[in-house]
Design goal:
Mean pLDDT: 70
Transmembrane segments: 77-102, 296-317, 448-475, 487-506
Keywords: Cell membrane, Chloride, Chloride channel, Glycoprotein, Ion channel, Ion transport, Membrane, Transmembrane, Transmembrane helix, Transport
Helix content: 55-70%
Number of strands: 6
Distance between the termini: 117 Å
GO molecular function, one term: chloride channel activity
Membrane topology: Multi-pass membrane protein
Low-confidence stretches: 1-10, 15-31, 146-197, 207-257, 685-773
Family: Belongs to the tweety family.
Strand order of the largest sheet: 1-2
Length: 773
């Protein structure tokens, strides 16, 4: 036998293709094939894996998939994963139930959280006292020639019909019936309380408390009129006003009726009403200030939703999209490699069939090549399993013939098995199918989910922009345009609710994906992929060589764990079977062709030698096919695509993208729930409604859009209500030395202007009507 023990010294021209001109032994010792890249766990993976609470359940995903885990372990991991997701849905559900309870409880119990504004009822006016004062004035006017009656610091001005009129005076203007806040004060309180309200309120309080000529301030800071209740009204003769000794004097009324006078209880009722009215406007001011803050909070939350949606689109979706593209590209390249190996295995099967036929023919030729020594060297030559050869009759070539026939008859069939080649091809088809399933499921499913989430979040952000506009318009006291009202009620509100529900579902899905990705990639995805391959081992054939190669790639191609089966077959082919033919031919050369021809007789041995050379070439081609297949399974051809898909696509990009998507989605949903809780801020609800028309049943009733004419009537009625409920603005107090003269000449005068009469009529009528809750 030849001393050659390596491919480089073998006469069989078997060399690695595609530039890999390396001896087979050198292949295992070359450090360039030991690919173990440095894997860095991202911050997102670390935080998700450490911070997400698992309810004390198992979080070792590689162990769960490895096949060693029990049924209880798998159930424990699944429960921990799902509960981490269901916690978000449960939180959202409880919040929604709380909002429903707020709506059911109503504004009296939860205030603005019920989606309705409710002002406290205004204090009850002392109607009887006011009527007494009006009758007393009419009697005094008829008796004294139309001169107004001055009583206890209250300057009365009424027309001939007994209705209050306005006074035009440079000095402070007194209350005509009850002390009320100015009209501008009320409007600023309802719509936009600010500097105007504060200045007018201060002026009102200063004017009221400085009216010491007609009222006193006690130690508690309250108005004290008791010292003047029994005083008789004094007038100056120069102004034509006489003192009235008794208002009930029959001579004071030209019609003969009695003149009523306000009692101490009436004055006390008026005083209490003034205090309650001041407190009422303070409460209204506080509630409207709170409403402005709520509208500002709603606007900030809407801006936060828009910002989170932008971050979702800018940071989350591109990263996930890159993960999808990288993973799909890696899977596609692995499919191409698998299909190339499939083609090589098909060629290997074809070469094997040809070589197997050539080996059988050569054994038949050897059986009859030396008829002088023996007619047949082998019994049962047609049956490879029962074939038995004896070359003792040809001692010159006995050793070489025994070795050659042993390798060709036994070793060749063991090394190159037809069923083994079929298993390789089946495993390659299985790998291709698995990659097809991964390509069809992972990128396409993620792409669909990504774009649906993008569409929902952008729509939600657009609605939040409109909500912010509506809240800001109402914050600055501007009415909403009709198109915005209709868009709000018929489009924004139902769409907002649907998007919030879908958003919570997307949040749960992103959280589950983030947790699963972190569990698979926390230290390295290799352990996860090895566990997955072990779980998929049943998909491949028994003792699959390809399955061993796949695990070899996942481990980073360490030399000590490289699959040896295919390499051993190549070594046997190139270093045992082919050299046995060479040794037999060399032995024949030593004997000499002419001597061997005389020894054996029979046909020309030159033809037999040519058959030996042809079989050697055929075996070399088969060895070359094996080596080609082996080089296609070389580590650099596969591991780079595995690392691209697993490290880059599944771990780096996907974990970061899912972390951004989950965090921004949760922020958007929390801010949206706050907007939903404070939805009163962007609705113009009726503070006071007529009986039978007030919205009390549900929220949808309260968001109905009123027609233009009804809105205008409501605004006019509200303005008329506040106009009748307040007196005119108080002016600055004049110097004290001029006060008596002003009272004599101007404060007691009657202004018969038509406009003042009309407003006085409205004021008198509204005083008698009372406030509506």
């Amino acid at each position: 036998m030849s001393n050659s023990s390596s491919l480089s010294n073998s006469s069989c021209p078997v060399v690695p293709p595609n530039g890999y001109a390396l001896p087979l032994e050198t292949y295992y010792n070359d450090p360039s094939y030991d690919i173990r890249p440095i894997y860095n766990t991202t911050v997102a993976m670390e935080r998700i894996f450490r911070w997400i609470y698992r309810w004390n359940k198992n979080s070792d995903l590689p162990y769960i998939l490895g096949g060693d885990a029990t049924r209880d372990d798998e159930k424990s991991y699944l429960i921990g994963l799902l509960w981490a997701s269901f916690a978000l849905l449960l939180f959202a559900l409880l919040w929604l139930l709380l909002l429903i309870c707020f709506k059911w409880w109503g504004p009296k119990r939860v205030g603005f959280f019920s989606a309705r504004r409710l002002r406290p009822p205004p204090p009850q006016e002392p109607t009887e006292a006011l009527e007494k004062r009006e009758q007393m004035y009419k009697s005094q006017k008829n008796a004294k020639g139309g001169v107004p009656f001055q009583h206890n610091g209250i300057a009365l001005g009424f027309d001939e019909m007994g209705k209050p009129t306005k006074k035009k005076s440079k000095t402070k203007k007194f209350v005509k019936g009850t002390i009320r806040a100015p009209k501008k004060l009320v409007k600023s309180t309802i719509k936009a309380p600010g500097k105007l309200y504060n200045s007018q309120k201060k002026k009102f309080q200063q004017t009221f408390h400085k009216s010491k000529k007609f009222a006193r301030i006690n130690s508690a800071g309250e108005i004290d009129l008791t010292n003047y209740l029994n005083e008789e009204t004094q007038t100056k003769s120069s102004s034509g006003i006489r003192s009235v000794s008794s208002p009930n004097s029959p001579g004071n009324n030209q019609e003969g009726g009695p003149v009523l006078i306000m009692t101490q209880d009436d004055e006390r009722a008026i005083r209490d009403y003034e205090v309650e009215l001041e407190r009422y406007y303070q409460i209204c001011d506080a509630r409207n200030t709170r409403l402005r803050r709520i509208r500002a909070t709603t606007a900030v939350c809407a801006i936060g939703v828009v910002t989170a949606a932008v971050m979702f689109v800018i940071m989350g979706i591109p990263t996930l999209w890159e993960s999808s593209k990288v993973t799909e590209s890696a899977i596609s390249m692995l499919q191409q490699r698998a299909r190339v190996v499939q083609q090589a295995v098909l060629e290997l099967q074809s070469t094997y069939q040809e070589t197997s036929i050539a080996v059988e023919k050569f054994i038949l030729d050897v059986n009859e090549f030396c008829p002088n020594a023996a007619e047949e060297f082998c019994s049962n030559v047609q049956d490879s399993e029962q074939r038995d050869c004896d070359f003792s009759t040809l001692p010159q070539l006995e050793t070489e013939l025994n070795v050659m026939i042993q390798y060709l008859d036994r070793t060749f069939e063991l090394v190159v098995r037809k069923d083994a080649l079929e298993q390789w091809y089946f495993d390659l088809l299985t790998l291709d199918n698995l990659l097809n399933r991964a390509t069809a499921y992972y990128p396409k499913t993620l792409n669909w989910a990504f774009w649906v989430a993008v569409g929902c979040n952008l729509t939600l952000a657009s609605i939040c922009v409109l909500i912010c506009i509506a809240a800001m318009l109402l914050y600055f006291g501007h009415p909403l345009p009709l198109w915005l009202k209709r868009l709000r009620s018929f489009v924004m509100v139902p769409t907002f609710l649907v998007l919030v529900v879908l958003g919570w579902i997307f949040s749960s899905a992103f959280v589950v994906s983030s947790i699963g990705g972190a569990d698979a990639c926390i230290n390295s995805p290799d352990a996860f992929m090895l566990s997955l391959l072990n779980r998929l081992e049943g998909e491949f054939s028994t003792n699959s060589v390809l399955h061993d190669f796949l695990k070899y790639y996942v481990r980073g191609c360490p030399v000590e764990s490289a699959p040896k089966d295919l390499d051993q077959r190549i070594v046997i082919m190139t270093q045992l079977i082919v050299p046995s033919l060479q040794d037999f031919r060399n032995a024949m050369d030593r004997i000499g062709l002419s001597n061997l021809q005389q020894l054996c007789g029979g046909a020309d041995l030159t033809i037999f030698i040519s058959k030996i050379n042809a079989l050697e070439t055929q075996l070399c081609e088969l060895s070359q096919s094996f080596l080609t297949t082996r080089m296609l399974l070389n580590c650099p051809n596969w591991v780079q695509w595995y690392q691209l898909g697993a490290y880059e696509g599944m771990c780096y990009y996907a974990s970061t993208g899912f972390a951004w998507a989950a965090s921004t989605q949760i922020v958007m949903m929390v801010l949206s729930m706050i907007i939903l809780t404070l939805r009163v801020s962007f609705f113009e609800l009726n503070e006071v409604a007529d009986e039978g028309t007030q919205c009390t049943s549900n929220w949808c009733c309260c968001v109905q859009v009123m027609p233009d004419d009804e809105d205008d009537d409501e605004d006019e009625s509200e303005e008329e209500y506040h106009t009748s409920d307040v007196s005119e603005n108080y002016e600055e107090e004049v110097p004290e030395e001029e006060e008596d003269e002003d009272l004599e000449t101007e404060d007691l005068g009657i202004d018969n202007d038509d406009d003042d009469r009309e407003e006085g009529v409205a004021n008198g009528r509204s005083d008698r009507e009372g406030d509506v809750q």
